[in-house]
Fold these 2 entries.
Entry 1:
Amino acid sequence: MVSGANKPLGRRSLLFRLLGSASVAAAGAVPVTAPRRAEAYDPGEAETRARYRADSPEVQTFYRTNGYETLKK
């Protein structure tokens, strides 16, 4: 009978040992960082102002030239 120290390594046990040692090494290499506090984004005045003006000449011309007035019934 073969003792535990002189037992030959099979394919499965070799693969199991290699994967086990690789996972331990990978877990030790990952730094543990504390989660950071979320910060709100301040868009400022330029991004929150109203841009669409229905009474502007450009908007009225757009709707007039694209035939939206003829679709009113």
Entry 2:
Amino acid sequence: MEILIFKTNVTSKKKASKVGTLLSSVQTIKQWNFDLEDCDKVLRIVATELKPSWVETLLQTAGFTCQVLDY
């Protein structure tokens, strides 16, 4: 398992729910959550064998910005 952290422009629970529907359909994603109170609107994903670039593309296709954060 690995934890991926992303900076996003998801600003509301409604938008997070929309993204969550996409993320929940991916079998390698075991858990995800947003921290909408953080200035970077952080998305954390716990997954196996998931490339950060794939998540970035998925969110961008849905109309959101998404950039991996190094920690």
